[in-house]
Structures are given as structure tokens and as C-alpha cells.
């Protein structure tokens, strides 16, 4: 239900149920989790792209797989939890290449990424309320932080489509990309991110996350520990040397 390929230092994960707008099945949840794990374990990979095959990014849970008898709490805990936690704890940068509509848990998946490159024909839909459910998979955790409570409430309670342009105004989109430049620009962005000091990126992500739930003095301890680790990397040594030699650094991700 997904495609996986690597090119240079980038792992490409494609959600691959195009005739169902890449709606999630349990199998797809598991395959995404495994693919992220696989990319994380491969030292040669320094950026991960998640995108959708066909016209959609992801329409959320496949609604033909769940009924009103299904315990949705268990579905979240068992099917989605491991996938979302894998993404949230991933030390490598994850780029959501939002090629088309991202609805329900597909919207949540987009929010869990570090960047959202948004096609001009894409849209976001917090669809849950339209079927009597609440946003899940960390959706409100991310959304309130990204766009503030007022807009998060608006999107979640009204359940209306947000266009790519509106997403950019709200701060949801890293950038909006014209359709005729889509593949080239997404690749160029992914390659750029992959050329950065990968260990520092992982530590920056951890620090941002820690900042939300630690008192300041404890946050400073996390920061000092992160900087200790960053200071031991080859990329730090290269960064300083390149600066002093007035040349561009060649980071290796170690
Ligand atoms: C679909 C779906 C879909 C199945 C389109 N399922 N077939 C929920 C429960 C359990 C626990 C965990 O948490 C969750 C998380 C969730 O994600 S709940 C929210 C689930 N998602 C939705 O409610 C969104 C439903 N879909 C839509 O609102 C629309 O399809 C969107 C806005 C995504 C796209 O609209 P259109 O571009 O007009 O396409 P379409 O509606 O014509 O869909 C094309 C086909 O895909 C169609 O099948 P068909 O056989 O008629 O061609 C749809 O039935 C199918 N499809 N989403 N979630």
C-alpha cells in the first residue's frame, strides 16, 4: 500500500492507494511505520519525503474498514499510535510533499511532518467533525501550536476545506509550489535538507519538542546536552573549518 525508494540521500515514501485517495488501512499504517524506521536506520539517508500517489495526498482513515461497532480508541492506540510516534520521534527531517487533498488523519500526517511543501492544487480538511469524530493522531497538539487556538478551533469545528493559499497564510505551508514545478522543486528542497548537518537537525527537533513541556531551567539542561552531542560531530568540525577557510561546508551527516 506504499512505495519506497531512495535517491541520493533521500528516502521517498509514496502512499499508494490512489483510487481510494490513499485512505489509510491498518496495513498502510504499519508499512509507513516500517518505512520510517528503515529510513532512520540507514545512515546514508538524511531526509525523508512522504507524498501521495495519484491526485490526493491522503483522505484519512478508510471508512469502509471501520463501523459503528469498532472501538475507535483501540484503532488509534493499535494502528495509528505506533506510526505517529515513529514519525514524531524520528531524528531525521521529514518533508510532507502535499500533492493533493489531505483530510482527517491524512491532515494529521501532514501536520506531523517537519515541513509541508504544498502543491497549489492541494487542500487541507479537518474532516473529523463532518462524521462526528474528534481530530486524532496528534492533530490538535500540532495544529494549535502551528496556527494558534482560534484558527485551530475554526478548522476543527467547521470542517471546511482550506486551500493551499489559505494554508500558506495560516503558516501551515512551508511553501506553495506551482504544479508544473512540483517534482523538480520538491526534489531540490529534499536534497537541500539532506545536505544539512543531520545530527544537529535531530537535536534541534528534540529541543523544540522539549521546550513545550519542560520548565526553563530543565530545558536549558536538554539544550546543553544536545550541544554537547552536536559538538562531537564531524559536521561541527567541518562547519567551523569551512567558516574559517571561507568556503561552503561539506556536511556528511555524522
Ligand atoms: C474514501 C475515503 C475514505 C474510504 C475518499 N475512506 N473511501 C477515523 C476512524 C478510526 C480511528 C482513527 O481515526 C480516524 C481518522 C480519520 O481519518 S476520520 C476522517 C476520515 N476521512 C474523511 O472523513 C474524509 C472523507 N473523504 C472526503 O471527505 C472526500 O473524499 C475528500 C474531501 C477527501 C475528497 O473529495 P473528492 O475529491 O470529491 O473525492 P471523492 O469524495 O469523490 O472520493 C473519491 C473516491 O475515494 C470515492 O470512491 P468512489 O468509489 O466513489 O470513486 C470515495 O468514496 C473514496 N474515498 N475518502 N476516507
Which tags fit this structure?
isomerase; Lyase 2-enoyl-coa Hydratase, Chain  A, domain 2; 2-enoyl-CoA Hydratase, Chain A, domain 1; three-stranded mixed β-sheet; 254 residues; 10 helices
Please characterize this protein's 3D structure.
- One of its GO terms (molecular function) is isomerase activity.
- It holds the Pfam family ECH_1.
- This is 2-(1,2-epoxy-1,2-dihydrophenyl)acetyl-CoA isomerase.
- It comes from Pradoshia eiseniae.
- The chain has helices at residues 26-41, 72-88, 105-112, 139-147, 149-158, 164-170, 182-194, 198-211, 216-230, 234-244; strands at 2-7, 10-15, 47-52, 94-98, 102-103, 115-119, 123-125, 162-163, 175-177.
- Helix 1 packs parallel to helix 2 (72-88), helix 4 crosses helix 5 and helix 8 packs antiparallel against helix 9.
- It contains ten helices and nine strands.
- It is globular, with a radius of gyration of 19 Å.
- It is 47% helix and 15% strand.
- The chain is of the alpha/beta class and 254 residues long.
- The structure holds ligand LHQ.
- Residues 20-21, 23, 59-64, 66, 72, 75-76, 80, 101, 103-105, 125, 127-128, 131, 133, 136 line the site of ligand LHQ.
Reconstruct the topology from this structure.
Blueprint: E1 2-7, E2 10-15, H1 26-41, E3 47-52, H2 72-88, E4 94-98, E5 102-103, H3 105-112, E6 115-119, E7 123-125, H4 139-147, H5 149-158, E8 162-163, H6 164-170, E9 175-177, H7 182-194, H8 198-211, H9 216-230, H10 234-244
Parallel strand pairs: 2-3, 3-4, 4-6, 5-7, 6-9
Antiparallel strand pairs: 1-2, 7-8
Bound molecules: ligand LHQ.
The site of ligand LHQ has 24 residues, from helix 2.
Amino acid at each position: 500500500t506504499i512505495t519506497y525508494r531512495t535517491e541520493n540521500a533521500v528516502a521517498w515514501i509514496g502512499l499508494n492507494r490512489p483510487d481510494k485517495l490513499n485512505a489509510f488501512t491498518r496495513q498502510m499504517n504499519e508499512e509507513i511505520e516500517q518505512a520510517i524506521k528503515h529510513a532512520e536506520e540507514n545512515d546514508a539517508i538524511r531526509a525523508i519525503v512522504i507524498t501521495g500517489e495519484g491526485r490526493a495526498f491522503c483522505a484519512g482513515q478508510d471508512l469502509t474498514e471501520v463501523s459503528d461497532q469498532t472501538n475507535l480508541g483501540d484503532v488509534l492506540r493499535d494502528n495509528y499510535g505506533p506510526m505517529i510516534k515513529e514519525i514524531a520521534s524520528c531524528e531525521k527531517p521529514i518533508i510532507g510533499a502535499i500533492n493533493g487533498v489531505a483530510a482527517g488523519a491524512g491532515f494529521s500526517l501532514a501536520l506531523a511532518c517537519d515541513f509541508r511543501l504544498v502543491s497549489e492544487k492541494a487542500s487541507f480538511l479537518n474532516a473529523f467533525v463532518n462524521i462526528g469524530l474528534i481530530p486524532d493522531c496528534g492533530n490538535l497538539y500540532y495544529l494549535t501550536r502551528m496556527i494558534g487556538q482560534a484558527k485551530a478551533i475554526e478548522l476543527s469545528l467547521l470542517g471546511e476545506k482550506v486551500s493551499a493559499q489559505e494554508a500558506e497564510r495560516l503558516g501551515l505551508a512551508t511553501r506553495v509550489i506551482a504544479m508544473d514545478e512540483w517534482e523538480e522543486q520538491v526534489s531540490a528542497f529534499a536534497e537541500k535538507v539532506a545536505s544539512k548537518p543531520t545530527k544537529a537537525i535531530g537535536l534541534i527537533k528534540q529541543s523544540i519538542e522539549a521546550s513545550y513541556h519542560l520548565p526553563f531551567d530543565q530545558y536549558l539542561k536538554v539544550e546543553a546536552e544536545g550541544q554537547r552531542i552536536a559538538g562531537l560531530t564531524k559536521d561541527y568540525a567541518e562547519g567551523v573549518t569551512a567558516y574559517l577557510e571561507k568556503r561552503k561546508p561539506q556536511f556528511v551527516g555524522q
